[in-house]
From TrEMBL:
Domain of life: Bacteria
Pfam families per the UniProt record, alphabetical: DUF2809 (PF10990)
InterPro entries: DUF2809
Name listed for the protein in its UniProt record: DUF2809 domain-containing protein
Keyword Membrane (UniProt): yes
Organism: Christiangramia aestuarii
Keyword Transmembrane assigned: yes
């Protein structure tokens, strides 16, 4: 039995919910655990939901794109891309790139991707045909 993936509205809804949560965390929390690492874990889920809401990519392809994007952003922090480019980037780009590299951020991104993959896997219900929905084949 092939279980149909939810529509783009499902992902758009969760994108908005997580965006609100991320905004509340940024505004009201000044701790050393939830804001930096919980926020990083949630941001990959946020980006995943955004991609699924606006594209027809498979679950697996979307997870890989988010994983690569999040690691690329962290790598740009490691090499201090702003100084390398010697160019004043727009403020929104500086916010996305962030300011400092941390291997703990990579762990948070990885856990977020794994959590998202697990949620999708269990939400679809495991069956012999469910992998075709995950991979898009």
């Amino acid at each position: 039995m092939l279980i149909k993936s939810p529509g783009k509205t499902f992902y758009a809804f969760w994108f908005l919910i997580i965006l609100i949560i991320e905004t509340l965390i940024a505004i009201f929390l000044e701790d050393e655990l939830i804001r930096p690492y919980g926020g990083d874990l949630l941001v990959v889920i946020l980006i995943y939901c955004f991609i699924r809401a606006i594209t027809s990519f498979s679950i697996l392809k979307s997870l890989i794109i988010v994983f690569l994007f999040s690691f690329a952003v962290e790598f740009f922090q490691l090499i201090n891309i702003v100084k390398v480019l010697q160019y004043q980037l727009p403020e929104i780009v500086l916010i996305v790139i962030g300011s400092s590299f941390s291997p703990w951020d990579l762990l948070a991104y990885s856990l977020g991707i794994l959590l998202t993959g697990a949620l999708e896997y269990y939400r679809l219900g495991y069956s012999e045909n469910s992998t075709s929905t995950i991979t898009g084949k």
